[in-house]
Amino acid sequence: MNAPVSPPVQTFDATGATPVMQQFFDMKTRQPDALLFFRMGDFYELFFDDAIRAAAALGISQTFRGTHAGQPIPMAGVPHHAAEAYLSKLIRMGFKVAVCEQMEDPAEAKKRGSKSVVRRDIVRVVTPGTLTEDGLLDARGANRLAAVAIRAGQAAVAAVELSTGEVECFATGKDGVGPLLAALSPSETLVADRLLADDHLAQTLKICGGLIQPMPSALSEPQASETRVKRLYGVDTLDGFGGLAPAEIGALGLIAAHLEMTQAGKLPALRAPRRAAEADVMSIDPATRSSLEIDRTQNGDRNGSLLAAIDRTVTPGGARLLASRLARPLLDPAAIDQRLDAVEWFVEHRSLRERLREQLKGSGDMARALARLALGRGGPRDLACLRDGLKTGEKLAGMVGGSGDPLSPPPVELEGALAALTPSLHQGVSQLLNTLEAGLGPDLPALARDGGFVAPGIRPELDQARALRDDSRRVVAALEQRLIQEAGIPLKIRHNGVLGYFVEATAGKADPLFQPPLNAAFIHRQTLANQVRFTTVELADLDARIAQAAERALAMEVAAYEDWRAEACALAEPIQAAAEALARLDVASSLAEWAEDAGAVRPVVDKSLAFEARAARHPVVEAAVRRAGDPYTPNDCRLDAAGEVAARLSIVTGPNMAGKSTFLRQNALLAILAQAGCYVPAKTFRLGVVDRLFSRVGAGDDLARGRSTFMMEMVETAAILTQATPRSLVILDEIGRGTATYDGLAIAWACAESLHDTNRCRALFATHYHELATLEERMAHVSNLSLRAKEWNGDLVFLHEAADGPADRSYGVQVAKLAGVPPQVVARAKEVLDRLESKTESPAKLDDLPLFAASAPIAAAPVVSAPSAVDGALKELDVDGMSPREALEALYRLKGLLKT
To answer: Is the domain covering 19-126 a CATH 3.40.50.2000 domain?
Structure first.
């Protein structure tokens, strides 16, 4: 998503502007490239070009309000209570929005003078990568802000998810920027404007998607960046983050500068940067991610992706963590085994797994709730989310820790999570949990200013204020009875707008109130014809307290909220650790749930160069086939880059629709699942870690850059041939199909040779060039596989079985028939095919075929007619026994028969 094309920044002459418009001009000058949501009472209003652009984008009315410099002022507005929906639409369209709020009550402004303007200020700038509100975010998807910096030839990518506080930093080469950004899938990417002059980098940023936000190059300079990062984290040195390289500091500095600008000085609760090198995760370039449909299909839909097929998570945090693991599979077999140990433990403890998953459903999203609280955008419900999450964690720690199976204790991955979920191990977290459990009421509003969220009995003064606010009649009646007893005469407590609350007695019985000792308590206020009115110190105080009770109650609740919010923010680190622990438990248990449903097994991941899959299945296709009630045909695949136990390169042939592409993708997805720490759908699977995964499957063009389908195919193939290593896995489908037959065959042949001899990597090479099957005899580590099909009663039956050996034919004409190609075209194609395949015709002499000549229509079947009279007469002639005269007479007779 790139920002919509913006008109030149509008400049304003504030001469003669009203005080409110002068205020608008001041705010707009601070954020000239953003749409300014200017708070005016119950609406956010936009003026001038902002109004015109927003009205067009949102489909709302654009009107005019007042004039400036003799011209009407364009204006559009959205209700304050519905602003979130409009913000969401604008952000998805690539706009940046500055939110200018009223910072005081209008009544306060009037105290400075009747013409005083309400004080306003920009409280935040909303961009795609800085969203934190639930209504603007996908609860099950990450929303990352990324930054790219390059210093002295070294590149770095930093990413922050503001909604959870997670920060990551990657050191890489320039060629590694694309795969890293593709894995992170940021909503917004910051980059120094000077770097956009590099066409290759600019194109890489475009391919990876998200809003590209150019930043002044000075913001990525190491010294200035270091200062900003220190300020962001509130530290005096960055040594605690490890030896950050200048490029890493530059990338983090861009993020720090962007957050300072967009968050109006409010510091988010960020975790220390989690550093990783390019060599820590499998490299998957954007084209490969797209073709394999790891988290999104090529249409951009989550349904139909690998992630959707295996996702059984029950918490938002767990869903995001699973997506992150699939996007960045690990390279360390020990770390992979730790994840697999956790999944296996839950597979073996099914009953416990079911109870744990039921508890997890009520844990909420602590990470995002904490982020909103830290940025001042949260409310009582976010505090309740922390309470529920911490309480759930406490229950799970006791449940899993006390599983009662001494022979099978929780593995390391789960032990670490359980430790983070035990509040008693952190006194502050335990106290916060107790405070929130006791202090929060049952019915919680979204915002603290709405009140009513502090439980009764927590603060006595708040209970008194509420009692005065809610039960003032009862309180006044009780005081009235007590004053009657003290005075010994009939009294009434009444109220009016002038005196407030007062004590009223009839004129005939009021005399005792003027005499000692009652006159010390009852203060005379007013005498009427039939009544005398008094007040008391207690009543005057009650009057003031009742009048202010609602305001005081709300102020005390807001103060309680702020205290609890500050306490939670001070405990950000252990709370974030607890949120991550819940996510890890969710992922491990959900993968165990999926493994049981899908019949998946634990893979063996090691440092070898092997790829051995037995009876493997494609997880997405199998799920779809099962829903249709059909069986799925599993297949084996064996590769070995060392060439010791299997071929290095397998040539895959077979007809279209037989499943070649599915077979190729299936094996690539198995590698991703295994290295992400998931079980795999197979009987057995062994994998030597794959450092880079390459996929060239499918066809597409790039019209914006003037690249044809074939050109795109060659560009992606070139990247594979120059970057694949012996530890890589490559799947190629139909290389060379976009050009002339012999050109394509030559290119495919040369690519196969290069993969085998130069890259020496594990590769599956699907093709319709059956000539490539001879490579098995020419090269040491090449094998042939084919997807089988059979002809039955003139129809083609796909078996979807991968068997050793090449395919005998492509069955293209039969597939065309299945696709509904007109019968006369199919028949003509068969005729041409027969001539091409005949021994008497040379395939090289294609110009001899009348392919472009007009040909008579081919009848569906020969027409059989009855014998004619001429036919009968010819059969009766005895040609050998006829004289010349008899032969001449017979000829005339036959001619005569033709005329009849």
So the answer is: no
